Amino acid sequence: MKGSKMKSEIADNLQKINASLEGSNARLIAVSKTKPIAALLEAYEAGQRAFGENKVQELVDKHEALPKDIEWHMIGHLQRNKVKYIAPFIHLIHGVDTEKLLIEINKQGEKNERIIPCLLQVHIAREETKFGFSPEEIHKWLDTQPLDHLPHVSIQGLMGMATHTKDEGQIATEFSDLAHLRNELKQRYQHERFSMTELSMGMSGDYPLAVANGSTMIRVGSTIFGVRHYPNQP
């Protein structure tokens, strides 16, 4: 009975979120970090195909255990020495926050004979703990025409995390600024592997504001699966 109740709740939550996205350009990335295989299978059976993880080992383990038509998104901070483990199959790396990381992604893309799609993570929050490029750093870097030297990388857009605050005006401004930057970069830089079509922003607590400001991907976990249970947590 418990399993059937969970299935019903997860399917119901997915239906509600997807209904709220109707009429927008946003689609749902189900954030499944720390969640058991059984919960992901229930979401899969309800039609969800895009899942986001933030730990490489967990992502690899789940990829091996679950159906191969799942799109796996790396949404957490990615260390360069771990790119090789996900390079063969990753659908999209959201949190690319340094040029050195892109160089490593390109190296692993070449080894696997594929072009790896990426998003540039932009620091839009007022919190110092968030990773990401500043807009100025992105402009300066793109002026060097880096993609000419990174043939196994495709930059498809931007990713950002808003400040953790109850001030919806501030959150909306941060999302709007990121959308403006995406549009500016799309106009300014022309390259076959620089499409700037994606805007990954919005999580369980703020995704309606993100969608209103042009998000194309929302990263939602607890609203689907419930509050996360961390290892060793009582």
Question: What's this model, at a glance?
Answer:
The chain is of the alpha/beta class. The protein has one domain (2-225): Alpha-Beta Barrel (TIM Barrel).
Your description of this structure?
The protein has one domain: Alpha-Beta Barrel (TIM Barrel). Helices cover 41% and strands 18% of the residues. The protein is α/β, with parallel strands linked by helices. It contains 9 helices and 8 strands. α3 (56-65) links the parallel β2 and β3 (71-74). It has helices spanning 2-21, 37-45, 56-65, 83-86, 99-111, 135-142, 168-188, 207-212, 222-225, and strands spanning 27-31, 50-53, 71-74, 92-96, 116-121, 153-159, 194-200, 217-220. It is globular, with a radius of gyration of 18 Å. Strands 7-6-5-4-3-2-1-8 form an 8-stranded parallel β-sheet. α1 crosses α2. It starts with a helix and ends in a 9-residue tail after the last helix. The longest helix has 21 residues, at 168-188.
